[in-house]
């Protein structure tokens, strides 16, 4: 399927809707716009579905009972509507946005509230999470209810006019604009449908013959889950296959934002997908009825999933006074036992959450596709939480591939992103190996940009990526955009090394220099331990008003505190200290796993090595892990010749002169 969209049509519709938000300026604050606009869009879309459904049922009733009056038909249809087995949602009243608006405006608020209160419980849940009843009061107070109802009472938002895909773009474009208006930098980056489609196809979801579950811990407005299910239904070649998808595939999501949750629930209602469940809450913390917010509604103690995909928010802060570090650390010995990342980037908490919910291989195993920015690849030094999480993933051989995507694919950010593919059911050809695919060039320009989204992935680009992921494991496969590494290639030793610097004659250097630290017993002991060789000091003192110089030497076996006390005995003041010591340098070296550490240090430092020690944890040396795709695909670009740069400079100089001449006239 080609994910083509009528961008001018959607852009015009989004702009028309946005105009109503701009009319709120001066009455509502910018961050409040979405609380007015998004609910009325959802209500109108639900209303369009109900109006179409009622018309269809009325035609069916009249066909079977042609003698019924219009009033009798309407009563019959209303009875069907209020039956949940007949209609997934309903409204007990006869109101519509149009009829509410066209009635006496003195009763506008009462009639609109009656209409809102008439919806069935599942729509009631959506309205509650929008907190819309309070917003209605503000709209009335600021005299904005009538204009808003007038704008939306006939807006064509039904599935016949806008597909789920198109409506998703409208929601996300509006949410992007609301985010920009409110200065929201929370890291929410809505996922383009072509990127979701790529992730879904890389997950290789089969047409099932038994239960198959799909999960997203940060489901947003539900795009990931919707595209996954739609993809399977499109691939179903026969009625039997389609029936199997409907019967066996269940989708499960969780979303932290009440607004996104409400939009997602409305979309599921319209689709009447009874095999899809999205719940409100924070996926990264345990659920606790006494907590200030709901936690994980799909705990791994009860739930496991066969396919998982997600685009968690980039750079989400989970610590600090506004975070949930205390709650998350309750899972530190179980779900997050590999490590806790830094508190200002929770990306790897989402990945650990998904890995904890993998189905055992005996039950079909699990595959994961998750979008990250560059941070989870290499942030954190050896022994840090991030490095230990990467180590845990690679040593369990779960990481299968990483796809480097083009920049400017997302609405709210222009950065490069990466799709990580993980699985616990690797075939023999994948085991112990990780594939990197450089797909940064696989895109074309958008005919019309959407926010920061200026590039797009077409069917051809997606096929290019999928072909390389499928075929690139074969021995002898040659493609400069595909590299397959042993998992150990990402491991390194971090070694703290002390070496003896050499002088201009390449001889071990000895320095005589001022001692600028506090001249204390504690510091002297540290110098003694670090150098493990004789240290000579010349100390200028003031004793009974006269200056005096004292010289002494501290050997590795001396009591440094006693030596210092003897040297300073009777002194009123220490004026200056000069010391002579071997010129030792301490540095950290990062050594690829598999290298002989001593040989590497001797070769690379080429100075006398005094001592070295690996980074340790719990008393044992540990490996660090980082993945640096840019390094592996680096291509040297020779600088432009000097004469070309000079010619360009003079060309620009002449252009500037002409511009100045034009201004002078």
Automatic annotation (TrEMBL):
SUPFAM superfamilies the UniProt entry points to: S-adenosyl-L-methionine-dependent methyltransferases (SSF53335)
Record InterPro entries: D12N6_MeTrfase_N, DNA_Adenine_Mtase, DNA_methylase_A-5, SAM-dependent_MTases_sf, T1MK-like_N_sf
Entry keywords, A to Z: Endonuclease, Hydrolase, Methyltransferase, Nuclease, Restriction system, S-adenosyl-L-methionine, Transferase
Top-level taxon of the source organism: Bacteria
Gene Ontology molecular-function annotations: DNA binding; endonuclease activity; N-methyltransferase activity; site-specific DNA-methyltransferase (adenine-specific) activity
Domain DNA methylase adenine-specific, first and last residues per copy: 167-480
Keyword Transferase: yes
Cited PANTHER family: SLR6095 PROTEIN (PTHR42933), TYPE I RESTRICTION ENZYME MJAVIII METHYLASE SUBUNIT (PTHR42933:SF3)
Name listed for the protein in its UniProt record: site-specific DNA-methyltransferase (adenine-specific)
Organism, as annotated: Candidatus Thiodictyon syntrophicum
Organism ancestry: Bacteria, Pseudomonadati, Pseudomonadota, Gammaproteobacteria, Chromatiales
């Amino acid at each position: 399927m080609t994910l083509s969209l009528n961008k001018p049509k959607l852009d015009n519709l989004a702009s028309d809707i946005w105009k109503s938000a701009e009319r709120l300026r001066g009455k509502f604050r910018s961050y409040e716009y979405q609380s007015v606009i998004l609910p009325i869009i959802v209500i109108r879309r639900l209303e369009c579905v109900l109006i179409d459904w009622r018309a269809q049922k009325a035609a069916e009733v009249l066909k079977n009972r042609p003698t019924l009056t219009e009033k009798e038909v309407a009563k019959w249809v209303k009875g069907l509507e209020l039956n949940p087995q007949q209609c997934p949602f309903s409204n007990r009243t006869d109101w519509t946005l149009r009829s509410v608006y066209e009635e006496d405006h003195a009763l506008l608020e009462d009639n609109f509230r009656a209409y809102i209160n008439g919806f069935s419980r599942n729509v009631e849940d959506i309205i509650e999470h929008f907190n819309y009843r309070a917003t209605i009061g503000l709209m009335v107070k600021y005299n904005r209810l009538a204009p808003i109802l007038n704008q939306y009472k006939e807006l064509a938002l039904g599935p016949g006019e806008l597909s789920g895909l198109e409506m998703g773009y409208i929601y996300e474009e509006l949410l992007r604009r609301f985010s920009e208006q409110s200065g929201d930098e929370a890291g929410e980056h809505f996922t383009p449908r072509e990127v979701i489609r790529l992730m879904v196809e890389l997950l290789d979801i089969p047409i099932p013959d038994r239960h198959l579950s799909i999960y997203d811990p940060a489901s947003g407005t539900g795009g990931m889950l919707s595209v996954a299910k739609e993809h399977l239904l499109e691939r179903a070649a026969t009625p039997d296959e389609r029936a199997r998808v409907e019967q066996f595939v269940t989708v499960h999501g969780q979303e932290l934002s009440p607004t996104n949750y409400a939009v997602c629930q409305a979309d599921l209602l319209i689709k009447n997908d009874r095999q899809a469940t999205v719940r409100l809450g924070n996926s990264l913390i345990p659920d606790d009825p006494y907590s200030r917010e709901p936690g994980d509604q799909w705990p791994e103690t009860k739930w496991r999933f066969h396919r998982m995909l997600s685009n968690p928010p980039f750079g989400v802060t989970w610590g600090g006074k506004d975070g949930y570090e205390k709650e998350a650390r309750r899972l530190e010995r179980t779900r997050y036992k590999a490590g806790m990342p830094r508190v200002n980037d929770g990306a790897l908490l989402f990945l650990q959450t998904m890995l904890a919910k993998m189905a055992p291989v005996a039950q079909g195993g699990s595959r994961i596709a998750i979008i990250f920015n560059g941070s989870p690849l290499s942030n954190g030094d050896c022994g840090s939480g991030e490095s230990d999480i990467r180590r845990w993933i690679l040593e369990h051989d779960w990481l299968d591939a990483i796809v480097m995507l083009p920049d400017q694919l997302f609405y709210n950010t222009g950065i490069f992103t990466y799709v990580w593919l993980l699985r616990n059911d690797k075939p023999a050809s994948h085991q112990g190996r990780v594939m990197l695919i450089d797909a940064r060039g696989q895109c074309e320009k958008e005919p019309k940009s959407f926010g920061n989204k200026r590039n797009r992935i077409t069917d051809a680009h997606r096929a290019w990526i999928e072909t390389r992921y499928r075929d690139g494991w074969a021995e002898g496969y040659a493609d400069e955009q595909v590299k397959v590494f042993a998992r150990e290639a990402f491991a390194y030793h971090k070694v703290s090394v002390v070496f003896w610097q050499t002088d201009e004659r390449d001889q071990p250097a000895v320095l005589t220099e001022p001692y600028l630290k506090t001249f204390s017993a504690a510091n002297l002991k540290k110098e003694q331990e670090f150098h493990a060789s004789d240290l000579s000091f010349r100390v200028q003192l003031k004793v009974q008003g006269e200056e005096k110089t004292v010289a002494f030497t501290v050997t590795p076996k001396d009591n440094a505190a006693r030596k210092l006390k003897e040297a300073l005995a009777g002194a009123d003041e220490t004026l200056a200290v000069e010391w002579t010591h071997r010129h030792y340098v301490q540095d950290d070296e990062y050594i690829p796993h598999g290298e002989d550490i001593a040989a590497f240090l001797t070769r690379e430092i080429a100075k006398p090595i005094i001592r070295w020690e690996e980074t340790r944890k719990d008393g044992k040396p540990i490996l660090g892990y980082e993945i640096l795709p840019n390094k592996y695909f680096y291509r040297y670009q020779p600088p432009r010749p000097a004469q070309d740069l000079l010619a360009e400079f003079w060309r620009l100089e002449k252009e500037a002169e002409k511009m100045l001449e034009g201004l002078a006239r």
